[in-house]
Amino acid sequence: MALPLPQGKNFIITHRMMPGGFEMPSMEVASDHYSLGFIIHGDRKVLTPTMCYTLHSGYINAIAPSLYHRTIPASGGYYESFLIKFSPDFVKDFTDSAGTGILDEVFRHPPKHFSVDDEKRVFDLAALLCDIYTRDEQVQTDERKELTEFRYKNLLYTILFFIHDRGINETEKSVVHSSPLSQPIMEAVYFIEKNYSQPLKIEDAAARSGYSVSYFSRLFKDQLKKPFSEYLCLTRLKHVQNLLLTTDLSVMDISLECGFSYPGNMTASFKKEFGMTPLSFRKQKGL
After folding, report:
1. Side by side, which strands form the sheet with 11-18?
2. How far apart (Å, rounded) are the C-alpha atoms in residues 78 and 17?
3. What DSSP state is assigned to residue 6?
């Protein structure tokens, strides 16, 4: 269970700095709040029953109440973010006036990224909100409570509209599951994400689930619509995409780093999955 909002609070924002190796030890779910994470630095992999996706600096991660999720490192650098949490009651006047569609769209996955200019605007709004909140918390009084809450809502609603209107759905770094995953299969997906660069066998993942290899294999394919070997390959290819976009490593080095024994096999699999070679993908993205 994710930590609830502090007693008596229906809105908080924090500036977080964590080591790159930080990971949630298990699946968590928030029962009383929405979360908006503004990634300032670092790369994270997010696992949910319906989707797995990667976050980078400049991305916003939106987690709705009751969504089980787990985050793990996607690179070695430190992790920095603004984290906004707010209860459904805090935004009731927003949803009463604008309906639930805007909020639903903001918190529908995959995560959002922005143009360079828009990224600066929305992150500046989050920084301003964090600064105001931090200063207000130091001098909070009952007389100021209504005014401070009004200011928080004003900035939060501006942010929500901005994300809705200007945010770009990230699809290339996401793997969508056609049906929600059970806990044992989520553990297997977590195991793959943690160890994709190593030689993996289905026996290793089945052992994590506590099932026999044959039963695990059927369950895995039923829920993910792919055999274990194909899903492992797709996971590796998603990491190949990430390194093509974020580094100047050679295709050979990326291939080896992502768990492919032979670069030629990776290139063939990449072309089959994405319709172009790794070099063409990198060139298309302007790198």
Report:
1. 11-18, 79-86, 34-41, 60-63, 112-113, 168-169
2. 7
3. P
Residue entry with tokens 């300032």: 40
Distance CA 168, CA 115 (A): 8
Tokens of 283: 């060139």
Strands (E), 25-89: 34-41, 44-47, 51-55, 60-63, 70-73, 79-86
Q: Domains of the chain by range and CATH?
A: 11-169 (2.60.120.280), 181-284 (1.10.10.60)
What gap in Å lies between CA 4 and CA 113, rounded to an integer?
27
Structure confidence at residue 1 (pLDDT):
46
Give which of 243, 239, 236, 238 is closest to 287, Cα–Cα: 243
| Both structure tokens of 150 | 């009004």
Structure tokens at 265: 């096999």
What predicted TM-score, i.e. pTM, was given to this entire model?
0.80
pLDDT tens column, 123-181: 999 999 999 999 988 776 666 777 889 999 999 999 999 999 999 988 777 878 877 88
Cα dihedral across residues 171, 173, 178, 183: positive or negative: negative
Residues with Cβ within 8 Å of 216's Cβ and at least 6 positions away in sequence, in order, are 184, 188, 202, 205, 206, 209
19-69 residue pLDDT tens: 988 888 777 878 789 999 999 999 998 998 888 888 999 999 999 998 888
